[in-house]
């Protein structure tokens, strides 16, 4: 009876507390798990802070390049906003007078007042004033050239006093030389124009057909019309090139007949 009662009391009693060694063994896994969890959270927080505080994959060279590019862009913007480009290094700004001088120096043919005014974009009066000023400077500086009026235009020419030395340097082509017969025929045409061939031959006393063709080939003589006589023969006259070659502004500048006479 006592044994049965003891057994019943044993069953109703709360379970016995485990031994101290067993508690320590079961508590260690729980402590390790908690420590690992806290360590992982600390690592995540650290990475998050580092990502905020430091630039990502940025090199010092890239930063400098970006800064230089921004400075260059700012400079370009300033240039175009001002409406001007950096000025080139020039000695002086060309004047209208110096531009006219440069054009005449480079031109191989006489240029009229209107042609020069159109190129320089100025008036014909200013063109004439500039040429006059240039010639005054050439004369005061004893230059070897002047701007002369040739064939209705202006051309820069050397002075006759320097022809002796220029002939030594220049080689004149033989086909540009005029024979005495050609010079005589050309003189008759120049003074008598417009003139027909028969009148030229009457003055010279010889046929001049070949000579006239030669002068036309060289561009010194041209047909200017036909005479209103029987047969309507051709009339001959000189060309603009004739004025250029002989340095004349117009036919009015031809020497007078008395000036061509040989002295007694």
Report the helical percentage: 55-70%
Regions with pLDDT < 50 over 5+ consecutive residues?
19-27, 47-55, 75-82
Number of strands: 5
What is the CATH topology descriptor of one domain? Arc Repressor Mutant, subunit A
Shape: elongated
Class derived from helix and strand content: mainly alpha
Strand order of the biggest β-sheet: 3-5-4
Profile the largest sheet: 3 strands, antiparallel
Strand fraction equals 5-15%
**Could you tell me how far the N terminus lies from the C terminus, measured between alpha carbons in angstroms?**
194 Å
CATH superfamily membership of one domain: Winged helix-like DNA-binding domain superfamily/Winged helix DNA-binding domain
Query: What is the helix/strand order?
Result: HHHHHHEEHHEHHEEHH
The total of helices stands at 12
CATH domain class name of one domain = Mainly Alpha
Radius of gyration: 55 Å
Summarize the structure.
This protein is mostly helical and 264 residues long.
Characteristics:
single chain, 264 residues, mainly alpha, Arc Repressor Mutant, subunit A, three-stranded antiparallel sheet, two-stranded antiparallel sheet, 12 helices, 9% strand, elongated
Report on the structure:
The chain is mainly alpha-helical. Among the domains are: 96-164, Arc Repressor Mutant, subunit A, CATH 1.10.10; 172-260, Arc Repressor Mutant, subunit A (Orthogonal Bundle). 57% of the residues lie in helices and 9% in strands. The protein has helices at residues 2-12, 20-53, 60-81, 96-106, 113-120, 124-140, 163-169, 180-192, 197-204, 209-217, 240-245, 257-260, and strands at 145-150, 153-158, 195-196, 221-226, 234-238. It has a 3-stranded antiparallel sheet. A two-stranded antiparallel sheet has the order 1-2. Helix 4 (96-106) crosses helix 6 (124-140) and helix 8 (180-192) crosses helix 10 (209-217).
């Amino acid at each position: 009876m006592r044994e049965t009662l003891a057994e019943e009391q044993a069953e109703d009693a709360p379970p016995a507390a485990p031994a101290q060694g067993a508690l320590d063994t079961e508590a260690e896994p729980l402590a390790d798990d908690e420590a690992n969890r806290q360590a992982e959270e600390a690592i995540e927080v650290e990475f998050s802070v580092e990502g905020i505080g430091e630039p990502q994959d940025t090199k010092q060279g890239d930063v400098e390049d970006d800064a230089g590019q921004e400075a260059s862009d700012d400079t370009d913007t300033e240039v175009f906003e001002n409406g001007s480009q950096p000025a080139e290094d020039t000695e002086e700004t060309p004047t209208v007078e110096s531009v006219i001088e440069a054009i005449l120096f480079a031109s191989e043919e006489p240029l009229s007042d209107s042609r020069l005014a159109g190129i320089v974009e100025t008036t014909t009066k200013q063109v004439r004033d500039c040429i006059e000023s240039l010639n005054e400077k050439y004369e005061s500086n004893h230059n070897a050239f002047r701007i002369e009026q040739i064939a209705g235009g202006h051309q820069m020419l050397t002075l006759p006093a320097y022809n002796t030395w220029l002939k030594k340097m220049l080689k004149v082509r033989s086909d540009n030389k005029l024979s005495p017969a050609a010079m005589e025929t050309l003189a008759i045409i120049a003074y008598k124009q417009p003139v027909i061939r028969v009148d030229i031959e009457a003055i010279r006393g010889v046929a001049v057909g070949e000579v006239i063709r030669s002068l036309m080939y060289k561009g010194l003589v041209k047909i200017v019309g036909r005479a209103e006589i029987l047969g309507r023969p051709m009339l001959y006259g000189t060309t603009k090139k004739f004025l250029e070659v002989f340095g004349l502004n117009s036919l009015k500048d031809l020497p007078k007949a008395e000036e061509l006479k040989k002295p007694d």
